[in-house]
Amino acid sequence: MNAFPWLTILTLVPVVGALFVLSFGGSNKNVARSIALTFSFIALAITLLLWAHFDSASGALQFQQQVPWITALGVEYHVGIDGLGLLMLLLTSIVVPIGILASSQIQERAGLYFSLMLLLQACLFGTFTALNFFHWFIFWELSLIPAFFLIKLWGGSRSTAAATQFLVYTMVGSIAMLLSFLAIFLATGKFDFIELATLAQHGQLMPAVVAKLGWHRFTPHHVALILFAGTFLGFAVKVPLIPFHTWLPSAYTEAPTGTTIVLTGAMSKMGLYGFLRILLPIFGAEMQMVLTPLLWLAVATIVLSAYAALAQKDLKRIFAYSSINHLGYCLLAIFAVAKFTGGDAALITEKYAAMNGVMLQIFNHALTAATLFWFVAMLEKRTGGLRGLNDFGGLRKVVPVFTGLMGIALFSSLGLPGLNGFVGEFLIFKGSFPLVSWATSISLLGLLATAIFILGILQRVFSGPLNEKWATLPDLTAAERLSLVPAIALMFVLGLYPQLILGFVNSTVMQLVQQLKF
Amino acid sequence: MLAWTIYISFLGALLLLLLPKGNAAAARILALLTALVTFAITLVSFLQHRTGEMLTVTDVSWIPSLGIRYHLAADGISLVLLLLTGIIAVTGILFSWNIEHRAKEFFAFYLLLIGSVYGVFLSYDLLLLFVFYEIVIIPKYFLIAIWGSTRREYGAMKLVLYSFIGSAMVLIGLIAAYVAAGEKSMALGDLAGFPFSAHFQMWAFPLVFVGFAILAGLWPFHTWAPTGHVAAPTAASMLLAGVVMKLGAYGCLRVAMTLFPLGLGPWGFHFLGFGSWRDVFAVLAVIGIVYGAMVALVQKDFKFVIGYSSVSHMGFILLGLMTLNQIGLSGAVVQMFSHGILAGLMFAVVGRMVYDRTHTRELALLGPMNLNRAIPFAAVTFVVAGMASMGLPGFSGFVAELMIVIGVWHAFPILTVCVGLGLVVGVAYIWRAMQKAFFAEAEHASAAPHEALPPITLPERLGALILIVVSVIVGIYPQVLLNIIVPALNSPLFNGLRQGGWR
Amino acid sequence: MSTVNYAQLWQLALPQVIVVVATLIALAVDLLLLRARPIHTRFTVAAILGSLGCVVAIARLVHVPAQVNVLDGTLLANPLTQLVQIALLVLAIATLLMATNSRFTEHVGEFVLLILVATVGMMFLVSSQDLLVIFISLELLSLSLYILTAFDKHRPHSSEAALKYFLFGGMSAAFLLFGFSLLYGLSNSTSLPRIAAAIHASAATGSPLNPLLLIAIVTTVIGFGFKVAAFPFHFWAPDVYQGAPAPSAAFIASSSKVASFFIFFQVMAVGFAGAEGSAAWMHFTTGWVPVLAVVAALSMVLGNLVAIVQRSVRRLLAYSAIAHAGYMLLAIVSHTQQSLGALLYYVVTYALATLGAFGVVAIVEQRTGGDRLEHFDGLSRRAPVLSACMFVFLLSLAGIPPLAGFFGKFYLFVSVLHSGPGLLWLVVLAIAMSAVSLYYYLQVLKRIYVANPSDEVANASADATTIRTPILSQAVVVLLAAGVVLFGCAPHLLLHWMDAAIRAAGF
Q1: Residue B10's CB: how many other CB atoms inside 10 A?
Q2: Taking Cα atoms as reference points, which of C418, C419, C457, C437 lies closest to residue C304?
Q3: What residue segments make up the domains of chain A, in order of their start?
Q4: Interface touch C410/B171, C-beta < 8 Å
């Protein structure tokens, strides 16, 4: 439907917003924040509009637009969303306003800060709607710039090192990805994801690549694996997957909390989106070939990050490792889905369940992690930047509302039934267990560790004897309570009625799994 | 109408000399008006010209007894470069708005240079092309020697002598071709169509190619470039690195490769792994890419980083020319445009925005000045320019380099690895320079409060904005250039090249 | 003995006679009427009278074109000789007018006389194909030039230069005469075409060149090589250029070059036709061509390389003259119709540029006291018009388009290659040396445009800083610069005329 370019407009709205912020926000940080918030709400409104017009029954691409762009290179401007895309757009539209609201601590050059946030949002929108490698890659790369400067200029004491590490890791991954896609382009002349996926499904992709690019020393097997490895690296760094995760804790910790919200809520999902949109459809067969090592990596991600979180003393670092852990579950499920099942109907159903779980987990983690970091931001505001685990104690006596609401978010992160965090993880485990029992069993250890550190936070920060320093800590203001309500409410709603999301992703999930054909 | 770009520029130069001494403001305004008019002409012609073919602008008899005509013409490739010249002419003047010392002579030499560059791109008769090509040399000398900075007299003389030696080589080749073709005509079409013997082409091609490539900064004849560009005043650096180096590349394509395509063919024997001049120049170009990038990585002077980066980027253009396939050649022309804009932008930031205010270019001394707070506009501009220069998608550099890499892959697969290395080092040196100059963590941040630097003036903002917008336009919609470049490459003029191994 | 038609001779020599009469009138007026006046007035009057005479002579040449050959080439007139004579007269006028603000001598009338007598000598020189007349005219020219060099009695350099010039000149004249006598012995005639016929006859028998002929070639080359200041006969040039008073040096550098090269071409191409040999790379054969090729190559190299280290602008111009002589010899080496046209074009535009350059040097010397590079510092701010003209002259000498010097070089190289691809090595050498020459020309321009005036000048009042040039000199210099630019942008104007003349002369 080339009718109205909704998706292009959606991508441009934050850009316009950034320009407005730069022109009018200037020195007054409140004005800048308001403008930024306004535009992010406009983006949210458009996304909700898209949801309203979205046909949930079909798993096909909607709101498509296809315009020839650089004919010499076979590049078109091709955008469109299906259930997965819509999910990503929704979570981005929700996470960014949360990030902006949590950025009240930003004092200097607020205009620049908020415009960078909006530019980051634009890049995210662009990545989640692009269907041609060319502009998908443009947005993927461009998103690094605002993120880098957001971390470096407003971050903590070691922000430069953290930002540089973030940049270098992601760049290296991107370059590997670029090379793989260039090789594919040279072999097939295509940059379009949909066309490439079709080729892969019919088993024509790799033979074409090997025919054009085959080197005598490598078997066709190896060529395929090399290309897969390149693309895989790009996404593995982003999610992240152990052992490519070392940039994350410092980046999340040093970044200003508003930025961390966007990083964990939306940018990490770029990696998962890549797995689902690009890696699985195009390189599904290759994933199968190396499934066991991949599963080991996923398991390691889940378990090791959870135990690492246990050892942390800084709240942000704990939540950083916790992010790695939660997204590890998604990876486990994705790899499980890639496993060859030979058309067994029961197992196909399990795959559907696992994949649905991934979708839910993506959204729920975004919501929960964003809210958790938001709470940390509010805490920092009140304590002048302190956020150590041992700095507090017995806060529930002084800030009961805060404790209550944060407690809800913490329990959601833990995976308490009734809250949103539970559904995703449940479906993932349910779907993966029949497929890859051993991996799923070991991953349970991660759940255990998560429970321990979450309860640890509750105990050390909120329970126990009151730390006299904080006797006069102010509780949540009315404005803050008001703004938190939607997030907390959503946690309950999704916990009790996950159909809200499953409704529109299910068809896409089914189509995705069916296309895998194994 | 395009011919008027030349005449108006020269007229502007003449009028400037007649202005009374000491009135710098009048000089600037006159120069800017002249440049704007020529830019308008090139822009209008660019937008009107849809087909990309060679269209004659003027054709008058000049020296009938020798068959030499005053013949101006433009095709898609020329138009792209003419547009580039127009843009750099205007922005160069904007960035020179603060020149007070002997201002009218400065702008007079500047306009003379611009007019001659327009002339080179418009010439269809090869003697005319050579005449304009040589005229370019003299204003270059004076612009650097009078208004330059570091070692300006040495830099100017080195630059001029290298250019002159290059053009001497070209002259030998041109005269030999003219005489061999019967002394009937110097028109590009006539000489391109003349069947020179393969033996003749085998020595004429490298002679003329190297002659032009010296100006294009081919390794190892590139040493004039960093010295010269660093010594030059900002506008001159913008023009030199942005446009004049492209004259060399243009000459390589338009003259050397068009007239002597057989010179690119295989020698029939192998020497040190090379089998043809094409191999030799491709490898030299790649060495230039990597060497330029690596040397840029270790420079202490900010401007030298940009100077060596120009050498590296020109290597891309020369490599693209040697691929002899449509995508590589079109990529080379797009890179000519893109690098012209980006080099202009970077020299503007380093020379005008930073050096004119801080009076130092040492990276170690710039760091503590906290430039990202003192002159944030300069910092942002350099970040954008740097990203574009390293090939970030969304800007012109990415498209150009992508096309060249694809072209190289088709032609010399092994060299692609080296090119990739060059790209990676490219990211590194830009990053290093940016960090050290603008975003260095001042260890003694609060110690010495820096004197407030003068704010970025309106002409500088305008100039920077123009250049960035142009780069983004080409980055997002490269078809705007490719629409006329590709048909130009398919024209009958390049037939010889096509037969000689075009893929 | 064929009868001599004196009326015809008179008609042929009329232009020269006009000039002689004019010069006698100028001398008389100066000696008799103007002795009490200031030198400037005397110079102006004498120069104007002399110029008028030259103008009348030019008018005569233009209006009465002729194709006459008296006494087997003893004296001839054809469009080509007329063209060269007109060029010589124009150069003489320019020299006279530029000399008007000189102060170096009180013998104004004599000075003008010598210049014009030298011109007459040159006019006879170019219109003859007889060895004796050539020699006599050459001597008339040389003797005048020696005296002109010595004219500045206030400076010992002048006399020293003149003495060197005279001694060198005398020796080379002796060599020349010796060669001529051998030629007479070989051919029993002093007429160039007949000598050529005799050489052809002996060459046709297939025997190698007569050793006497070889000696004749060498001595002739020595004789003329001295005149044109080619290596290794150039040693007089730097001292003369530096020591002679400015107008004399200008005259020597411009007019005498035009005549000398023309007659050099005539003698070698016409007189020694048949004994050329070849200078093609790897295919050298005995004859005068390889000799000249070697002389040319060495002149180009030496002239350019030594010019680099000069600190005096006059000496720089001298060494550059040696280099340019090398280039022009290439035209003689290739001895075709086209190369004669190229030679003429080159030498005429070269003369214009050199004359102009010396004019500027003269003014600078007068106002700043010397001709070293330091004296030119900041000239562009002190005398913008003069500097612009110097810019034109020096860049024309360097061969930068769109000035005449570039086209001259281009046409020269085209004609050399056209005559045979074997001479490519000479062309390559010439172009390479041209590239070197840009360096030292730019050194002068650098001083003029880039360097700042010396401190005492800069601090002086505005009046003292600006150099006021006498109007007449400035007008001449500007006209010369305009000519150089014009002939560079539209070379066809001169070329057309020269090609027609050469064709008409039956070359």
Answers
A1: 20
A2: C437
A3: 290-518
A4: yes
